[in-house]
Design goal:
Layout (H helix, E strand, L loop, with lengths): L1 E3 L8 E6 L2 E13 L2 E12 L10 E4 L4 E5 L25 H6 L1
Length: 102
Amino acid sequence: MSLDVRHFKPEEISVKTVDNHIVVEGKHEEREDDNSFISRHFVRRYALPDNCNIQEAVSTLTADGVLTVKAPPKAIESKEQVIEIQQIAPPATSTEEDKKEK
């Protein structure tokens, strides 16, 4: 996910994981802006797909104020299992001697 946070300094932004969500918060106290005062605050909560590895999530912030958060997919566990082949003795075949006895 990417988010425009150019109105915030890096120290005014937090990115954290809560359960299976990424929570991004930005807040700066009231400050003068031209002839008025302004304060900003936002919270964004993004649900992650089940196949994301939330423990390996990373965030980057570009010089122009774009915050990007990425969570790689979980490693796919191989569900392959080798099944042993059990060989069964071949059925007894009748020999020429067996045929003669009958």
